Structures are given as structure tokens and as C-alpha cells.
Hints:
By secondary structure, the protein is an alpha/beta fold. The protein folds into 2 domains: 28-211, Aspartate Aminotransferase, domain 2; 213-310, Aspartate Aminotransferase, domain 1 (Alpha-Beta Complex). The protein has helices spanning 28-38, 43-50, 62-74, 95-103, 196-209, 213-231, 261-270, 294-310, and strands spanning 55-59, 81-86, 107-109, 118-122, 141-145, 166-170, 181-185, 250-254, 276-277, 283-287. Helix 1 (28-38) packs across helix 5, helix 3 runs parallel beside helix 4 (95-103) and helix 6 runs parallel beside helix 8.
Amino acid sequence: MISKNSYLLSFTENNHPSFLLIPFRNEDIFNNSQINTKYNFNLVKMLQDRYPDKYVTLTSSGRHALKLVLEDIMNKIKYSEVSIKTTSDKKYISSCVTDMIEKLNLRWTRKHHNSHKVSLFNHEFGYVDESLNNRNHKNSFNIEDCAFSFDSKYNDNSLCGTKSQYAIFSLSKFFPIQIGGFLLSDTPIDNKLDDPKTIRYISNVVGYYFNMIDEWSESRLILKQYYIETFGNLNIKNYFEYNSNDVPGVFLFQVGENVNLPLLKKYFWKRGVQCSVFYGENAFFLPLNQFTTKRHIDYYYELYLNFLENNEA
């Protein structure tokens, strides 16, 4: 099927395009190889300058960062359960988080109260959970999950990751790299999980792009507004309320109750568009990063219209 803007909307087996949630493009494989060969950046120093009151540990992924944090807390106190709080306070939580908690023989719960010894606060998709401002840190260990929220800020303009004893980040959610993470902590943590060559690669590639942070955040905010305007033609609204300090990692939007969300996910994936359901809610998310373009958004919009008209994958 050809759309009004001459986009091919039909499913083409083995010949579909690829639109990732993360800001990684195929050519970055080769660009990053050249960067790693040519440069020698000290990313730890860059991050310490960004977070002067914290210790920084580079990791190969956000999951490894979480593992190191949970193990570090184990060395300080006995605990068996991690409570999880999210910006929306809804059911959705990434299995990357819960799987790692279970891998360490710990339980997790979505019931959240101040008596928990260890709590994880997930800043969902770049949208800040302000409840940490009212959290008492004296009798508990708190972890900020900033996987999608690298450059998001609290209402007082402090960066995500600075309101708790620990914070974990996924560098691949913000920079054009397939791997990479880091953690912030109040005391030093050694990383014995990852190969030094891998850490050097991450340090050089992310270090190379580090001065692009402000520009890329601004691009995301502009594109989010274009998403809202475009999908607003169908009375679709952004899931979270607007806040200029929130730098989005995806376009998360509300859908009608009659939309078959599992089928919608299958429809987009068959056409090469990474996406997912905001499980437990009538909501869905599509790619939004600094390399998303307005043409991409127009294409996603026409795909969505086509799905609504035909209701099949």
C-alpha cells in the first residue's frame, strides 16, 4: 500500500527498514571504530566534572551498573527485597531491572514505603520522578534508574542521578553506541565485570560526542513537540505532562481503549520500527532520539493511521 505521501506501508518480508529506539545507526559501527582508534578520551573525568559530588564507575551496560550497585549495598547491609517506584506509578517496569534483581536472589515489589531498606526510583523514559525530593535517605539506600534520563533534570535544575546514594545510566540510550553504562555512588566502586578494552572503547566513543549533549537534548525536545502536533490530529496526547526539564527517550502516547496494543506492536515491528506497549496502560511508545527526523515521524503517523483503518498486522 502506498500512502498519500508516497510511503510504502505494506509489510515486505526480509526487506523492511530499521528504526531503532536508541540513537544508533549502522554507519556508527564504522564511525566508532575510527574514533576508538584515533582518540583517547577520559570519560570518567568528564563525568566526574558533570557530577562533582559523586564517584563514577564505567560499565558495559546499565544492567552491569545495577548489578554492581546491588552487590555494593549487600556489602553494607543485609536485605532481601528491592522496592521499585516509577514516575507514573503504573505497572510497567523493564524486565532488565527485575531480571537482574532476581538474578542476585533478591525479591522486588511495586509496593513502596519508607520502611524499605533498598528502593529503586525509575525516571521513566526521561520523565523525572520528583518524589525523591521528599525521600528520607538516612535509613535506606536509594537508587536512581536514569537509563533513559541522562540529561533530564529535577524542577530545581539538578541532574537526574544526584538525589540518591546511587544512580545507574545506560549510555546507549543517549549516545550513538551499542553498549555502555555507568553508575554514580557516594563511595568508590570497582568494576571487575567488564573487559578493559570494552571500557576504553566506551570511553573514547562517548567522550568524542560528549560536547553534543545540549544540542542533542534540544533536538529531542523539538521533535517531541512535532510528535505531539502530528499525532494530535487524532486527538492523541503525550502520556506525561509537559516539563521543559524532561528530555524524552521515546514518544510515549495514550491510545484509545479499542486499539489492539499487542497487534499494533507486531504491526510496527514487521515494518522495522522498534516500539512497545506501556504495559498495564492504554499507551504505546515509538522512537524519539536526536537522529529521529520529522519525516520519520510523518512515516510513523501514516503507519499508525493505516493500522487504525485496517486493524491488522
